[in-house]
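Course assignment 3, question 2. Fill in each field.
Student: A.L.
Task: Predict the tertiary structure for the chain below.
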Amino acid sequence: MPYRVLALTLVLVGASSAYAADAVTDALHEAYAPYRVALFRTNGKSQSEAQQALTQAQSAWRSVAERFGTKPPAPYDRDTEFAGRLTQVSALYDRAAAAVRDGKLAEAHEELESVRELLADLRRRNGVVVFSDHMNAYHAEMERLLIDAPKVLSGADATLLLMSQVGALDYLVRQLRLQAPPALQRNAEFDALLKDVEASVQAVRAALLRQDPGAVRDALGKVKPPYSKLFVKFG
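Answer field:
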């Protein structure tokens, strides 16, 4: 494994140790660190780096499935779909691995995106909320804005239509700061990365208020990168 991939994984695992919940949620969070690296690498160009990151993520996930697949502790112990959900996630990892072996990184990335959705649903069904859920909420609204904006920018009501979505995004980015665990709130790197995300939202808002379509497009193009940096390290 290249040093930079290993180093990134170890840093993420170290960061995740600052959290404490029930045994299953803690294990899921530990496995989420190499998962984020794999998600990031499959969104890139290097097949070898994607393969190495995905191998690490699969190994971490396999440990979770082996520990808790047949008899999870509370609060997941009454979830009759728990084992099936873990099996579904394992299948997604297998399909992603096959896609990476075939050089289809975009396809692997899509499979891994579904892992995030399944785990979020698993926690939600069992009344568990973690910081990653707030990151996911921001991500979903961000993607909606980036998809919708090009369709309405040329229209007469573009500013009004998009400002409502930017308002939602602004609320969600404030939740990232408010809901961050104390360990993250004290983390200087987290603070710096989150400030970049906050600034990207405010830049879109300012461009909309100026009613400058060109500036809006430019600002929208700068929304995703700071979120991606925050996600891969702390999401």
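Instructor remarks: The domain at 131-234 is CATH 1.20.120.290 (Four Helix Bundle (Hemerythrin (Met), subunit A)). Residues 42 and 105 are 5 Å apart (CA to CA).
Grade: pending
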